[in-house]
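If you are new to this repository, start here. Below is one unmodified record pulled from the training split, so you can see the exact layout before writing a loader.
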Amino acid sequence: MPDAKVVLKHYFGYTDFRPGQEQVITAILQQRDVLAIMPTGGGKSLCYQLPALLQPGLTLVISPLIALMQDQVTALLNNGIAATFLNSTLTAAERGDRTEHLLKGQYKLLYMAPETLFSEAMTTLLHRLHTSFGIDTIAVDEAHCVSEWGHDFRQEYCQLFNLRDRLPQTPIVALTATATERVRSDIVAQLRLHNPLIHLSSFDRPNLYYEVRTERSLERLIRQVRSSKGSGIIYCLTRKQVDAITERLTSENLSALPYHAGLSDQVRRTNQERWLRDDVQVMVATIAFGMGINKPDVRFVIHYELAKNIEGYYQESGRAGRDGESAQCTLYFALRDVETIKFFIKQKVDTTTGQPLELQQRIANQQLQQMIDYAEATDCRRAILLRYFNQSHSGHCGQCDLCRFPPPKKDWTIPAQKFLSCVARTKERFGIHYVIQVLRGAKQARIQELGHDKLSVYGIGQDLSPATWRSLGRSLLHRGYVSCTDDGYGILKLNDLSWQIMKKELVVLLAIAEPSGRSPDTKRSRRSREKATGTDLFEQLRLLRKKLADQQQIPPYIVFSDRTLAELCSSQPITLEEFAKVPGVGERKLALYGPAFIALIANFRKQGNATN
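And here is the target side for that same chain:
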């Protein structure tokens, strides 16, 4: 794909595609529907932005958040790409001006929110644009929002199928960072994709360190933030907690701002912009913050309270380290968080009738249990996250607390055989809680009604506590030794490994203990990075980047990413030709920023700091 690679270097400053990008781009250029699931930082946006530059007409991008579309348009314009958005933040004059330029064919990408897409005026505009220039591609960003089985379902996304009726020949590209197999099927059905290319990247983010801490206090949080370098996010469940933590951090002379739905739109926009521009270090927020945030240099994400589900946790924690550099993801876990989340789940009601949405509540409760299982796990956390998305991992990542500081293991084969035998004897129709009740010989009316008190496995597990059985059951699930349905009921199902255990063909070695919650040796990783990049030069480049960004009123990462600055430290180019070879330097950025950075590097080398 030589034309695409020329465009890639000219506009985006890279010579090679990331894994999966070329395959998706080729399919788009062949006018195929596509479902692309790529992890945060995997380069989803480029998959539709680059084809837009190779096609004659307009690419329409559906984006769920105003801040997201504004950020992406700013980055595109900085790369010399004609893009715009139409949303509620524009004045009538601004909207009219942009509409006029659209009708003259002066833009390649148009970003819109789903809730404004089907107004009468917008329907007319899209018809005129398609008739005049052609809408080549429809890109649906954050496509998991169409599914009730996803972690961030949005009602306004339910109308997007109308795009297929109105523009039947226009290919649709659905993109998301997270989607289970059920959610993927739902996206294809809801958006009416025709024989789509389905690209599924690995969800593994090897640069992220995952840990769970069970001892939670503001003092511990303050110490962690104070010892952390770079930008960070702290997630909380409630607005009250957001405000309390922000106040405490600022009282400790740490720069932090709040973000939640109780603040005005203007305050939220201002706070987010200040954080994006590195004016403050920490954003303390509810999960209302962060979807689509493109800031690549977030060095830590802290969940001060339990996340509601694994899919949301993966996305939220995945906002760290988008640039591929090392970053830390910490979850503070306390059982009282569970009751808070259960309260939120009970609020899921039909807005018309006021009746509980039983399906959504059931799904949410199962997802909450999966999150508790993650927090209380004794197996590799990365393996647990990947298995949730039906991907495998060896289970020894070296980049989580349980792999770095593993609890001792022992042989649990016999209890595992009892557990799996109980699943088999009860005909694979129940979840962990019921299986444990049968094993423990509980005097439940339901057990007696079903005749399960007559089974050979009834009461054979009284030697272990319910908590130990729960930990064993979770570990068997995490290891893939037993399966579980994702229909909201969490029904246990036997698989090939289950039968190997019951036939004594597989030994079960597990660590049934509390996780250590210890932290990685961040000082060592930080020292190695500083040695590799040259701390003095890196800091000087960061200051110059901030100065240039402030002059243009854009976030610093839109000028250059931390990774590009690290490459500049390593190669130390002093000519435009050398500078152009650095990854992340396209033609426009070379002209805009090259001379200033070259002058700084040349002065640095003149002072006797030249590389060998």
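Two things worth knowing about this chain: The domain at 522-609 is CATH 1.10.150.80 (DNA polymerase; domain 1). Residues 514-533 have pLDDT under 50 and may be disordered.
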